[in-house]
Amino acid sequence: MAQAFYSAQQSRALDQKLIQNGVFPGITLMKRAGMAATEYLKQQWPAPCRLLILCGGGNNGGDGFVVAQFAALQGYEVTVALFAQPERYQGDAATVLQEVTDLGIQPVPFHPDLLSEADLLVDAILGTGLTQAVKPALASLFDPINQSGKPVLALDLPSGLNADTGAIMGHAIRADATVTFITRKLGLTQHQGPDTAGRVHYADLNLPETAWPNVGEAPPLAQAHDGHYWWQQRPPRPLASHKGTAGTALLIGGNHSMSGALQMAASACLKSGTGLVKLVTRSEHSPTLTAQQPEWMLYDERALSQLAESASALGIGPGLGQDDWAKGLFDQACLMDRPKVLDADALNWLAQFPRHRDDWVLTPHPGEAARLLNTDSAQIQQDRLAAVKALQQQYGGVVVLKGRGTLIYDGEHCEVCLAGNPGMATGGMGDVLTGLITAWLAQGMAAFDAACLGVWLHAEGGDALYQRYGVRGVLPSELSDCIRRLMAETMAGKV
């Protein structure tokens, strides 16, 4: 079953409809949120433990008051610090504040001196309601919290983080863990979201399935299917298959001093089950590449037009370069009526000579995306969802915006990849992904499905290397063999 990610606006709309339709009173949702957060807190930081619960003036603060109640009843030493005057709390938040007082817990105004007396901080200041930069007076109080050295559990969302984009709104509290309620927030997977939120635990508050249509007619911002879903989208391979029916991939690149990029793409393509893998590269590289992998067939640029006639899919960009040789290959490949993947220097050529096609998969990292949209990478990262949509609208096809929380978008569907790790920030990783997606295109998968399966295998393979070697031991050249083992385990039902 897919995980769906909704916007902050949709999340608030769902919350209000549940209340207005009489499905759940607001106080019930608040109590369930506080209970879910307390249960997670108990697992991660068992009692006895001194809690400092930081409560803002809205419903997020109300969630914090509920945590204070449940935690106090279960043996925690609780201090509640207010970021608003008591009279500012209204509705359900005012009700649970009174309940805290009735338990004998006297809330106090927040002061940085309180931080030294706590073992754990609970961030219940702003939640998902933030729509503009954190005001300076409040932002100044975030610094001592972040500098305290105390672990932080955030409720629903770290204060100061944009729920939709993962951008920090001026200042934010850095959490070690976040318990998010009712809906999954895309911002927790994007840009600064993962580093700001820490470990993310989703709590659906035991809402019935019938509640979800109340999100409204708008679809979720994105979905995340597990790898088994994308694995099942592969076309069957009949018993009577032969190399000609298992797909022919044509990979183009490997300019002077850059044959390694093409080698890594070709290795991933071959080891993903493609029947024939043909390479168009500088003739000087042919002896070395043939020695590395005798299954590859090597050609120079003069054979490109003829080879394209029998190719099932093209992949262009790994090690392509920026000279006249590269430009000629780029121009030819773009005109060929075949499914294709563009990466690396092919994207840089596309930025200089824009065109729109429906038969390609573009795989930019934020820097390449910035060149394609004539902006800078900081702007791309500030709203990655908007960026991937703008890229698809301008250039067509399927766009894979790489990075933490890779987004795959075809103009209608958006998939977010939840796997991957910082050890994959190594030159050559994108070349492997190009080979993977080209392989699945060549074997007959639809472009969106091929991109999603390729991204999933790439990320999961990287995670397997990370678990074995650590963050500084993930090598692109070792990824293809790891992915091949992953595919075998997936087919055997071990993954």
What does this structure look like?
The protein has 495 residues and is α/β, with parallel strands linked by helices. It folds into two domains: 220 residues, YjeF N-terminal domain (Rossmann fold), CATH 3.40.50.10260; 265 residues, 3-Layer(aba) Sandwich (UDP-N-acetylmuramoyl-L-alanine:D-glutamate ligase), CATH 3.40.1190.20. Helix 8 packs across helix 16, helix 8 packs parallel to helix 18 and helix 12 packs parallel to helix 13.
Write the layout of secondary structure elements.
Layout: E1 3-6, H1 8-20, H2 26-44, E2 50-55, H3 59-73, E3 77-82, H4 91-102, E4 108-109, E5 120-124, H5 136-146, E6 152-155, E7 177-181, E8 184-185, H6 193-197, E9 199-203, E10 222-224, H7 227-231, E11 248-252, H8 259-271, E12 276-280, H9 286-292, E13 297-299, H10 304-310, E14 313-316, H11 324-335, E15 340-342, H12 345-352, E16 360-362, H13 366-372, H14 377-382, H15 384-395, E17 398-401, E18 407-409, E19 414-416, H16 429-442, H17 447-469, H18 479-491
Parallel strand pairs: 1-8, 2-3, 2-5, 3-4, 5-6, 6-7, 7-9, 11-12, 11-14, 12-13, 14-15, 15-16, 16-17
Antiparallel strand pairs: 1-10, 17-18, 18-19
Helix pairs in contact: 2-3, 3-4, 8-16, 8-18, 12-13, 16-17, 17-18
